[in-house]
Amino acid sequence: MSGNATFRRIIRRETHSPRTVAMVIAAVLSIVALAYLGIEIVLSLLLQPALLVSPVSAGDWLTGIPEQQPVWAIIAAASALAVIGIVFCVIALTPGRLPKHQMVTEGSAVLVDNAVIAAALAQYISDHTGIVRDRISVGVSHRVVDVTVSPDAGLPVVDTQIRELVASELEHYQLTRGVKTRVRTPQQHKGSYS
Questions:
Q1: β-bridge mates for residue 192, sequence order
Q2: Helix (H) or strand (E) holding 84
Q3: Half-sphere exposure in the Cβ direction for 107 (13 Å, CA)
Q4: Domain 100-193 belongs to what topology?
């Protein structure tokens, strides 16, 4: 039981990135804003001129907004601030993901970088279709494998054949998280999923 928990913890640490940079930026911006506000309040209490805007002037401006601006502008500004706040909350609460996939193995944790999977798939497609490797582009994300094939003129490409090749090779990799395959060819401008 303890071994499984250890593996899960290691895999999570290696596949998720910490939000340290975002947290440090948010903390520094908060400290700067609070320091500025504190300086402005102290200057106002000492009856000194403000650095930028005195707290009293800022308060008067905020209370005067409803008279100066139409209601739709206030609602739009409030909505924009709410969206920015939600984005910051999501960034703070959700873990970042590193470009890696876990392979199913017994008794060990194997992580493979997405770029390695993409290169292996491109070579596999090239070997089985006769298309030059440089004409095959593969991108791998957490949920999608995106294959773009641009064969030489006169060489037919069948989307279903490419999709089946990718599916069979991914089956050998035994990734713990299933991915969809999207294939794009010159005959088909929009990729199709499977």
A1: 183
A2: helix 71-93
A3: 0
A4: GMP Synthetase; Chain A, domain 3 (3.30.300)
For residue 147, list its beta bridge partners.
Answer: 138, 183
What is the residue type of 147?
Answer: V
Concatenating the DSSP letter of every residue in 37-65 gives: HHHHHHHHHTTPPPSS--HHHHHHHHHHH
Kindly tell me if the per-residue pLDDT of 5 is higher than 80: no
Q: How far apart are CA 140 and CA 179, in angstroms?
A: 9
Residue with tokens 């402005």: 40
Give the containing element (helix H, strand E) for 103: strand 100-103
174 Ramachandran zone, left/alpha/beta (phi>0; psi -120 to 50)? left
∠ Cα 167 168 170 (to 5°): 65
| Residue with the two structure tokens 């969206």 | 83
Q: What CA–CA distances, in Å, run from 56 to 45, 80, 85?
A: 11, 25, 26
Domain boundaries, the chain: 19-94, 100-193
Name the residue with tokens 């094939």.
149
Report if pTM > 0.70: no
71-93 vs 20-45: helix crossing angle, rounded to 10: 130
Residue with tokens 């308060």: 59
Residue range 102-152, pLDDT digits in tens: 777 776 777 888 899 999 999 999 898 888 888 889 999 888 899 998 877
CA distance 18 to 36: 29
